[in-house]
Amino acid sequence: MTPFQSNQDFFRAVDDLMAKLDVDGHRQAADELREGYSCLNGLTDGGALFLESIEKVRKTHAALLSPDDRRALEAIRAAARKAVHRR
Question: What is the reported pTM?
Answer without folding.
Answer: 0.91
